[in-house]
Protein: Isocitrate dehydrogenase [NADP]
Amino acid sequence: MGIPITVAYGDGIGPEIMAATLIVLKEAGADLEPEVIEIGESIYQRGVSSGIEPTSWESLRRTGVFLKSPVTTPQGGGFKSLNVTIRKGLGLYANVRPCQAYAPFVRTLHPRMDLVIIRENEEDLYAGIEHRQTDEVMQCLKLISRPGCERIVRYAFEFARAHGRTKVTCMTKDNIMKLTDGLFHQVFDEIGRDYPELKQDHLIIDIGAARLADTPEIFDVIVTPNLYGDILSDIAAQVAGSVGLAGSANIGDHGAMFEAIHGSAPTIAGKNLANPSGLLQAAVMMLVHLGLGELATTIRNAWLRTLEDGLHTADIAGTLTKTTVGTLEFAQAVVER
Ligand code: ATP
Ligand code: MG
Structure:
């Protein structure tokens, strides 16, 4: 019996990048038993406003490990973001997003960039608590709790220690939001005292984001509230080379979800154009989570070798590209290596 995991093919480019990722996992000999659930557009169309059905929750709670493709949330019409629903439903409080340059093989202005963004995943403005005060005044509640801050900040320091990182940077806007972001910063300073071997600093999010775009190589681990982390990690992935390259882990005490950081990119769907690397990197993080570190390393090395050999999908094609390949051909090239 393999290790049961829950898998969703998602929407847009989701099915293509999932098929590519599962081929690599299978050919690498990963002893996994994927249970496929349907989420996203097709479920919204059945009138289920959450985009996920009860039987799918049952699978997720049982396996505790979710490999997920991007889904499209219909605009307007009272549909909830499925990502937010799943993160909150499974208590996935930490969102871990490594962003690394793969120079010279993938074009980037910042070849030495190698950082990890650890984003709080359940609170802040993404708690989804919004009100209409009057016809002309809308309100969104920014919720920051001490236990929430402690969990994510502790996670970030433990992550840095476990991965041999040397610095943790906190980013907030506590000069303006003194109570909410102020609490996050204060907890960072408190918990940081337990990690004297790690360098620690705090930046106001606006200058922090500017530095990230300009000199990302000065950062190592970044810990930040939900909204800032969402924006920062897209910037970081793009600065590193492409949003199509980065994977992420969503970690909780009773489960974990692994996904690419990008969305469902409907404009390039169904054309065998999408880069499956983001989801593949997420799958590598999943294998580490499952204790299959050696297999994770094997797949990651094969993937790196594919990039080094100049086999690139269109989104990262550049001067060192030897062959521009499609989604499936890229996966096959990884398998060969
Ligand atoms: P969604 O509403 O689901 O976020 P989106 O169109 O905003 O969909 P994103 O994934 O956020 O899609 O991507 C924005 C753009 O980045 C896409 O239109 C596409 O050009 C590019 N992109 C994203 N992911 C990939 C990928 N895996 N491979 C190639 N290009 C990608
Ligand atoms: Mg998007």
Summary: The chain has a mean pLDDT of 95. The pocket of magnesium ion (ligand 2) is lined by residues 263 (CB under 6 Å). The two ends are 27 Å apart (CA to CA).
